[in-house]
Amino acid sequence: MDLGIKGKKALVCASSKGLGLGCARALAEAGVDLVMNARGAEALETAAAAIRAEFGVEVRTVAADITTETGRAAVLEVAQGVDILVNNAGGPPPGLWSDWEREDFIRALDANMLTPIALIKALVPEMMARGWGRVVNITSQSVKAPIPALGLSNAARTGLTGYVAGTSRQVAGKGVTINNLLPGIHATDRATSLDKGVAEAQGISMEEAHARRCASIPAGRYGTADEFGAACAFLCSQHAGFIVGQNILLDGGGVNATL
């Protein structure tokens, strides 16, 4: 399928690896020029070079922490005029409800709610003026079904979801869509970290932790970054202009709900 976005320009945050890289690759395959951001310069440049070589698109990189004001300013200086924004940032650490203090929640909100909102506010007005734009926020299945050990993520990402629910309806008439992709467990560094935590807490091997988690997923496996990226690219395509303010699960059926 021709996604109809060849020649567009996208900012993909936290895109040196994992789900962000999957999204960057899928957009590049569709002919989209990229601004890629991540904190680690070496991994970012490696990922960008591979995309340039494979897909022949223009890729600019900004190594910066997108969750800080300084980092956002550096990224936005390069990303002005983008047609597509993919918001992404690493999730807060797991723990118990009794572990977290106000400062922990502030850090989670800064990374997973307030940073995406700041980028939306900075970039969407130009999209509206041009009459076309796409925003995809990578959130979590925990928005639909809270995960007890990820209370910081549950709270911050649900806050972003509420913001998008209202904002997306206000900008859709100008040709700009905002939607959320809700990943379940995917084969990324984040999954490895979570599996390691389970293994240590339960005194089991990483292999057993992985197998137990797979057994809880109807699809029987972890997702891949490539299939996640493909879903992101479709939401950014010319075919997705009537999809507004939606929360789309990519979790292998993990959330057991009718609606």
Unreliable residue stretches = none
Distance between the termini: 28 Å
Tell me the helix content.
40-55%
- The H/E string reads EHEHEHEHEHEHHHE
Taking all Cα atoms into account, the compactness measure Rg is: 18 Å
Label the structural class. alpha/beta
Beta percentage is 5-15%
Write the layout of secondary structure elements.
Layout: E1 9-12, H1 18-29, E2 33-38, H2 41-55, E3 59-63, H3 69-79, E4 84-87, H4 102-130, E5 133-138, H5 151-171, E6 176-183, H6 189-202, H7 206-215, H8 225-235, E7 247-250
Parallel strand pairs: 1-2, 1-4, 2-3, 4-5, 5-6, 6-7
Helix pairs in contact: 1-2, 1-8, 4-5, 6-7
Brief digest:
The chain has 259 residues and is α/β, with parallel strands linked by helices. Helix content is 47%, strand content 14%.
